[in-house]
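Reply to dn_fold:

You asked what the input looked like. This is it:
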Amino acid sequence: MCPGALRGGLVAIAGGSAHGSTSDDNGGLLLLAGGSTAVGTGGAIDIVTGTSAASSSGPLIITSGSTGESVGASGNIYFSSGSASTGNSGRMVITTGKGGSDGTAGNVTIIVGRGSAGVGSALHLAAGASDHAEGVGGDVDVASGSGPGGSGNLTLASAPAFPESGPSVPSGNVSLASGVAPGGKSGTLVLGTGSSKLTAGAVTLQPGDTLRANGADLTLAGGRTTQAGSTAGDISISGGRGDYVHGMSTNRPWNHDVLLPQGGDVAINGGDSLVVATDNPLSYSAPGYRGAPGGRVDIRGGLAAHGNGGGVSFKGGDSQSADSWNGRNGGNLELASGSGRNASGDVELYSPDAAGSMSGHIEV
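and this is what came back:
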C-alpha cells in the first residue's frame, strides 16, 4: 500500500469450495434473495458500486468463473425476470446512465466471445412468442438515437473477411426476409426512407465494387408461384408522383399561376465503359487499350412453354388536361440509336421467322 493511502476494506462473500474427485462434487451455491410478502411487492435487490467525489464510480462486473485445464465449459450467465401465473412477467431493461454536462452517455456493447476452434458463436435476438389462439408474436425494434443535430446512423453489415485468409475467402451474407407462413400470407418487406418537409433520403441498391473480376449482379424478380391458374408476382418500377394538395384546409387556392409538381423520370441505362485516370476522370483516349462496348439494355417479354409469349409495350403517357392554357398533348415516344464519331448505331424493327406459321406483322 502506498504511504498515506486510505482504501476501503474488501468484503468477500463466496460459496464453499468442493474438494471431491467426482463430477457431482459441485461448489457451494451463493443465493441472494429479497424478502417475500403475502400481499405487497416482494423485496428488491440493489447492487450498486461505490461512488467517488472526485473520480469515477466503481465498475460492476458479473462474470462466470473460468475453467482450469479441464475440457469443461465456463459457467452460463442468465438474466431473466420471474414467471407470472396470471399477469405480465417483469421487464428487463439494460441501459446506461445519462451523461453529464460535459460528457456523453455510455455505450451498450453486446459481443460474443472469440473462439479458437470451429465456427464463431452466434448472437440471437428474438422477440417473445405468444401461446394465445389469436396472439401475435412480439416486435423487434432497432432504432438509432435522436438529437437536435439529427438522428444517428443505423448500420447493418457482416464482418469483413480477414486479409490474411486469402483473396478467395468471402465475407458473410446479409439476409432480410419475412418469416415463412405455411397457411397464410407471409409478411411484407419494406425498404424506405422517412418523410421530410425538405428532401427525403434516397434509396440505393448497389452491389459492391469488384477489382479483379466481373462486377456483381443486381437481380429484381417477382415472386414465383406453383398454383395452377394463378399469376406470378409483378415488378413495378415507377417515377415518383407529384401531388399538389389544394383546398381551404391547406390554404392553397386553385389558380392558373401555380406550377404543378412534375412526376419523376424512370431511367434504365446500360453501364458505361470508361477509362478512369487520376488526371482526367473521363478519358476517352486510351492508347494501348482494346475498346469495350457499353452495357446492353434488353427488354423482352417472357418465354411461354405452352402459350403465347409475353408482349412488350412502349407507350407515352396520356394527358387528361382540358385547360387551354396547359399542354394537352400525349407524351412522345422516341426510338433513337446512339451517336458515334464514325457512325451512329442502326435502328432495326423486325418480326422474327415463325417455325410453323406466319411471322408477325409490323404496323407503323
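The chain has a mean pLDDT of 82.
Hope that clears it up.
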